[in-house]
Amino acid sequence: MNPSRPAPSPSSPEPSLPPAEPIPPHLLLRRALGIATHLAAGLARFRLLSRHTPLTERAALLQRLCRALVCEFGIEPVPTGFPSPPAGRGSLLVANHVGFTDILVLGSLHPIVFVSKADVARWPIIGPIAKAAGTLFVQREKRGDVARVNQALAQTLASGVHIALFPEGTSSDGETVLPFQPSLLQPAIDLAAPITPVHLRYHESSGARIDEIAYFGDRLLADCLRALILRRQTLCSVRYGNTTPAETPRKPLALRLREEVLSLAPRDQTPPPSILSKSTARFAGNP
Asked: Which of 96-100, 209-213, 247-251 has the lowest mean pLDDT?
């Protein structure tokens, strides 16, 4: 996510459909309490970690928290072509970026470390959790900081930990994919790390795209969060491409990965069943 978000692209509107069924007030209160409880429990558990806790354990803890939160928010990930990177090797997931929900979705499906804009480190509750989970913060406007983050990316990949990267550098409307910035792909090239392209799309059970939770243009994060909380259910299509080693120069690689992410956009409107159900273990109630 990035404050310098682009305006939505002029694309053909999707067919007009009846609004999604809103969540009843008593369930809304229960949802809000559940989200707050899991965030508080997550923050407490991350604060108990020592500085020597390996990234693999931090990523696993973040995954449990994200699984609990996607259930509380009513988000159901719908993965297709789930990747199987080589055991013991760090890999890179490269995805389009619609908003903060992308972190919850990918984090619920994988024990993973994220790359984020530096501003997130200062957010209440979320910032301390992200830092404790091993998130790599980058100030893209500072060229020297990209070099620092690339060094940290290389160390993370070399340690066998998986990383999620949003190379658009900002969030978009979910209908288009912005040009990929190649600078943070260099560590994967140097290590010939496996890279998997991923396409994320939020939609109704009918297949119609959900627009109001996309964080782009002049929208405020609070408005997107409110729209998400008020929805009874939000499906997220997570489509994975082929996993291949990063062997090309970074600019051609960025172009190829963007084309692969675009090619993963669903062509049909019939979503497969979700793998995360409401019965997923809750973070606050399980070790």
From this structure: 209-213
Higher pLDDT, 216 or 114: 114
**If you search the block for the tokens 């090309």, which residue do you land on?**
248
Among 13, 169, 41, smallest CA distance to 97 is for 169
- Report the sign of the C-alpha dihedral through residues 150, 156, 157, 158, in that order: positive
Segment 23-43, tens digit of pLDDT: 788 888 999 999 999 999 999
d(CA 239, CA 176): 15
Residue with tokens 């893209």: 140
> In angstroms, rounded to a whole number, what is the distance separating the alpha carbons of residues 286 and 275?
20
Task: Give the C-alpha separation, 66 to 39, whole Å.
Answer: 10
CA separation for the pair 149, 184 (Å, rounded): 8
Query: 117 near 168, Cβ under 8 Å?
Result: no
Residue 216 confidence class, pLDDT cut points 50, 70, 90: confident
How many residues appear in the chain?
A: 287
pTM above 0.90, yes or no: no
Work out the number of other CB atoms within 10 angstroms of the CB of residue 110.
21
Q: Under a CB-based contact definition with an 8 Å cutoff, are residues 138 and 119 in contact?
A: no
